[in-house]
Structures are given as C-alpha cells and as structure tokens.
Amino acid sequence: MCVTCGCGDSAGVRVRFPGVPGDGHQHSHEHPHDQLHDHSHEQDPSHGHDHPHTGEPRSQPIPAATRTIDIEQELLAKNDSLAEHNRGWLAEHGITAINLMSSPGSGKTSLLERTIREAGGKRTVCVIEGDQETLFDAERIRATGAAVIQVNTGAGCHLDADMLRRGIEALAPPDGSLLLVENVGNLVCPALFDLGESAKVVVISVTEGADKPLKYPHMFAAADLIVINKIDLLPYVDFDLDRCRRDARSLRPDVDIVSLSVKSGAGIDAWYEWIGLK
Amino acid sequence: MHELSITQSVIDVVTERTGGDRVAIVRLQIGKLSGIVPDSVRFCFELIAADTPLAGAVLEIDEPLGRAHCKGCGEDFELRDLILLCPCGSADVVVMAGTELAVKSVEVV
C-alpha cells in the first residue's frame, strides 16, 4: 500500500511534463538535483506490495505480559518536517509558493491561465499541477508559455510535502519566481497537509453555494486568502456573498477575501495585488 | 480518504521504534477538531496492518475535546466545531486542545 496516496501501486504518484510521450520520466532527471534532494532517499517508500491480504484475525488475544513503549509522536511530523524543508529551500531561492485549493471546477486553472497571461513579465510564474490523473491542466498551462509540471496522485486525494518536493526538483523553478501550486480538487484532504508553501488560497465559485465554508470548515480555517470566483454569474444564482464572507471569518477571523470573475476580469486586480504581481 | 495515509503513518511511526516486535495495543490521540475520523482509521488499520507486526493489535483511541481560550472574557470553553466563537460573543479566541493527532504509546509482546 502506498504511503502517500493509499493506492495499491507503487507507481501511483507520477511527476510528468506535458507534451512528452509516455510518462515523461525521461525528463524528470535532467535537472540538476540540488539541496532538496537530500530527503529523497528517506522518502523511498519502504512499503511492500506483496502482502496477500489473507485476512488476519481481527484482534488477537492480548498476552498477559506486555511492555509499554512511549512513542509520543505527531502523525503529521514527517510531512511537516518535509514541508519545513521545502519552506526553507523556497525562501533561500526567493521563490513565493502559493497553494491553491478548491472543489473541482471552481476555476483554479482558469485563474492561473489568466494570471500568467496578465503577469506581463513582472515576475516569472511557474506552475505545479496536482490531479489524480491526466495532463489536461498542465497542457492548458503550457499553452500560456509558463513552465509547468503535472503531479498525478493516482488514487491519492491531496498533494503532500514530498510530492511538492518532487515537483520542484523536476520543474527547477528559477530564483525569485512565483510558484503557483494547484492542489487536487477536493475541499477535505488537502487542508491537512502542509506543503511548505508561503500561503494557502481557497477558491470557491458562486455556483457552489455560500454554505461551503461551514460545510468544509477545516479547509476554510486553513486559508490565508479566499477567492470567490465567477461573480459574473451572481445575477443567475442564489449566492449570498455576505453570508459566505461572514461564515469564512467565523472560522478564521483574519482571512483575506477577494471576489472576482476570472472570465470578465472584474475584481481581479485585488488578486494580483495579493500575490504581489501588482 | 486521507485517513489511509494517516493510518500508514501510524504503522511507520510504531515500527520505526519497535522493529519486528509484535504490537498488541496501539494508543492514539485523535482530537475532535483534528479532521480525522477515528472509525475510518480503525477501518484502514485492519486493512494495512495485516502482514506487519501490528496485525491484530487493538487500537485505543483517546479523543480529546476541543477547548479554546477567549482573550475577550478570559474564560476557557469547549469548542465543539471550528467556529471560533466564545459564548460571550467574542471571536478573539485561541484553540487550546482538540487538534491532537499522535501516537502516544504501544504495548509490545
């Protein structure tokens, strides 16, 4: 069983360049491996895949004489320490990394496409795309001319710090760049996993309903910025902007909130300002 | 779904310390505000502990309640969900407990 994604296949997580026939692995080792690499061998999943699942007894009798061993270890400690390593490496290289999370279809990729097109050379923008399968999003980003790599998580429901490390190693973003990381579309699991990013952004679109912050409180409590997208559709849907803002602030009182339409461009300057492109 | 990777971490963390010794009991702390569902962990544990020294081990899960301190009125209060609101009406609160997610100890044979 795979440690990171829970899939039954050791090749579950793949880091791929768009536009490369096959899985693109021939490119993933071309770049110089620098400081990030010193963790890679620790992450070599030691899990075997040969266990037959024969159905062990559900709970064996507990012998009378047992020995207590204190463990006292946080379960996310390994991910968190990898995330801190990423954070340090990114800071050393002057790279700002933004982790974008949302449900599928809220407009993350469209927001990235527009952002890259309008960045106007102010800062190099690179993208790491996370999805369970396909290179669809990476192909869209590639069409904008930005450097991009796709992380396919297989059965996995979120990116973790080691996947980001692998993505960064393969992509080799230049010093001083803005690295936009599009997490797997999912309002539950990605909230728990620190990647080492500079900021977490949650995108919600008005077609999803204003009740999402309270329905998915862990995600919205983790957000540094909430982007409310597709406001051009407000006349056609029952979306209470004030309620959405109020509920989001009940989970994180100091959260920044930007309302915009990627399609029309309304309100988008506030987003550019927030990510330092203005 | 993320319970699967969390449960795998349980097995990794324990076997790093206990090696091949058979583990009879695993004591976990999963806070009410941690975002992790204990029943899902139990379900995943049965699946992925098979063929490890933790196979068949009993999971004892402590679930600390959410607690917060209000900077407005100075009181501590139980936090049942992630809505940061003190009964006094202040939202200036700090979460003190409930987000725990840890392996505390094990019993080995």
Number of domains of chain A: 1
Number of domains of chain B: 1
Output mean pLDDT of chain B.
95
CATH superfamily of chain A: P-loop containing nucleotide triphosphate hydrolases
Q: Assign the CATH topology of chain B.
A: hypothetical protein PF0899 fold
Query: What overall form of chain A do the CA principal axes indicate?
Result: globular
Please count the beta strands of chain A (DSSP E, at least 2 residues each): 9
Q: What is the helix/strand order of chain B? A: HEHEEEEE
Distance between the termini of chain A: 45 Å
The CATH class name of chain A reads Alpha Beta
- From the helix content, strand content and strand pairing of chain B, which structural class follows? alpha+beta
Q: Quote the beta fraction of chain A.
A: 15-25%
Q: Give the CATH architecture of chain A.
A: 3-Layer(aba) Sandwich
Helix percentage of chain B? 25-40%
Written as H for each helix and E for each strand, in order along the chain, the element string of chain A is EEHEHEHEHEEHHEHEH
Q: Regions of chain A with pLDDT < 50 over 5+ consecutive residues?
A: 1-11, 23-35, 37-57
Q: What is the highest CATH level, the class of chain B?
A: Alpha Beta
Distance between the termini of chain B: 31 Å
If classified by CATH, what would the architecture of chain B be?
Answer: 2-Layer Sandwich
Strand order of the largest sheet of chain A: 1-5-4-6-3-7-8-9
